[in-house]
Design a protein that fits this description.
By secondary structure, the chain is an alpha/beta fold. Helices cover about 55% and strands about 10% of the residues.
């Protein structure tokens, strides 16, 4: 998300750095370019206008601190305004401590609402150890209950059994009784969506809101709809009390207009972002971190959190024991490769690292490190279990078989075996002399999973 906007801002600030000093004329040019960048990102026109006015007001007459350049000052002002426009920083997801927490999910049909219910249920279960109940209030779409039931099985939570011809309000009453009897902590209500805003939809939602008294009423919006999402948000918030929104399909939206426009349409914060199709592909929305990503400042905190979430505790403990013994085989290397893939691969991780976010679209298909990681995984999987545990036995004839099985060449086999030997040597050294004996630069290059040696050459 935000790739196109981030690239445009990068160009604008590079131009400002070349000017040396900023007068009213150069500020006008910069503001015009920023306004155009926002509109191209499908940000609503009123939002773009307000953004430019606020930045200009802050920039004119601002005293330049001696230690920074005028361009850096404008960047700081733009960053502050981005944080402000993206929403409040204190947008915590509310959870009751001593009583049942009810969550009402609303939105248009096709916005990813039911899938989002599954993702939020998974988030609550894994992060807060809550007993979850899914409830389908969508009686108009035949497959709605079946879809939610499948998600409940994936997440391993309960779903309120279906009774034919029961109206939504009666389903709510039954859900409350079921929750009391079965010690449920959180009830997630999935409502019916429509292709557009209809009076009967809003009347039904208003009635359900009064019956449920939700702790959070969450509007699920497809980020690909751009500024149209703003109109949808406004229509919903005029009828029911929206407490927050969740943007779906963020991974497919390179513009980000919906996210930048939401606060203008409704005072409610964005709570989560759907970043993929898997049940765990849900991220909390932090305005400051998103602003940093847009301006190419990276997001190391999110990267560390992502790593923590994807690390398997048992695998980590097993690896720690092997390192203590100085052991490291090709199965361990495969585990490291898969760990990096879980975190989005090299290109996905680069978006979080300061200065590297805008380089991902400049990587050629041939030199893409993610392709190299996929190739390495294919090579290791083409080996037998015995070969992976004892790489030294892999001779010429075995290499030919592995190359044929993985669709690669013998030179690629040699490359991964060489990489494994280097990492194995480092693990042995680490087990004998401790972490201080390892050159961090060499370690980083080996953990890169096949990043071409000239990848970052002349990039800055």
């Amino acid at each position: 998300m935000f790739e196109s906007l981030s690239n445009r801002f990068d160009e604008i600030f590079k131009g400002l750095k070349k000017t040396g000093s900023i007068d009213e004329s150069s500020l006008d040019i910069a503001m015009r370019d920023i306004r155009r960048a926002l509109l191209e990102a499908d940000v609503a026109l009123p939002v773009a206008k307000q953004f430019i006015e606020e930045v200009r007001k802050e920039a004119i007459g601002k005293e330049i601190i001696r230690s920074i350049t005028p361009a850096q000052m404008i960047t700081k002002i733009v960053n502050d305004q981005l944080i402000k426009i993206l929403g409040p920083a204190d947008s915590e997801f509310n959870i009751n401590k001593n009583e049942i927490s009810s969550y009402l999910f609303v939105g248009l049909q096709g916005s990813g609402k039911t899938t989002t219910v599954g993702k939020v249920g998974n988030y609550l279960k894994n992060n807060f150890d809550k007993n979850i109940l899914f409830v389908s209030l969508d009686t108009s779409r035949p497959a709605a209950f079946d879809q939610l039931k499948k998600l409940s099985e994936i997440v391993s939570v309960r779903i309120l059994p279906k009774i034919e011809n029961q109206i939504p309000v009666d389903i709510v009453t039954r859900a409350k009784q079921f929750a009391q009897l079965n010690e449920i902590d959180c009830i997630l209500y999935d409502t019916a969506g429509r292709m557009n805003i209809e009076e009967n939809l809003m009347s039904e939602l208003s009635l359900l809101e009064k019956e449920i008294h939700p702790l959070e009423t969450l509007l699920v919006l497809d980020s690909l709809t751009g500024q149209e999402a703003v109109n949808v948000a406004r229509d919903f918030s005029n009828t029911i009390s929206i407490s927050g929104s969740i943007l779906t399909r963020i991974d497919g939206d390179s513009r980000g207009g919906a996210a930048l426009s939401m606060k203008y349409a409704t005072p409610c914060p964005i709570k989560f972002m759907g970043i993929g199709e898997q049940i765990e592909d849900l991220e909390k929305f932090y305005p400051e971190r998103i602003a940093n990503r847009i301006l190419g400042m990276g997001d190391i905190v999110s990267l560390v959190e992502k790593a923590t979430e994807t690390v398997d505790q048992e695998d980590a403990e097993r690896m720690a024991k092997k390192i203590q013994k100085g052991e490291f085989d090709l199965d361990d290397l495969l585990s490291q490769i898969r760990q990096m893939k879980k975190m989005g691969g090299i290109s996905g991780m680069m978006k979080f690292i300061p200065g590297l976010g805008n380089l991902t679209n400049k990587i050629s298909q041939n030199s893409n490190p993610d392709n190299s990681m996929a190739q390495q995984e294919a090579i290791i999987l083409s080996m037998t279990k015995y070969e992976r545990s004892r790489p030294k036995i892999i001779n010429g004839s075995r290499k030919k078989r592995i190359a044929a099985g993985s669709g690669t060449s013998i030179s690629e086999i040699n490359k991964i075996l060489k990489q494994h030997r280097k990492m194995s040597d480092m693990m042995k050294k680490l087990s004998k002399k401790g972490a201080g004996s390892i050159d961090p630069n060499i370690l980083a290059s080996q953990l890169g999973g096949g990043i071409p040696s000239n990848f970052l050459k002349n990039k800055f």
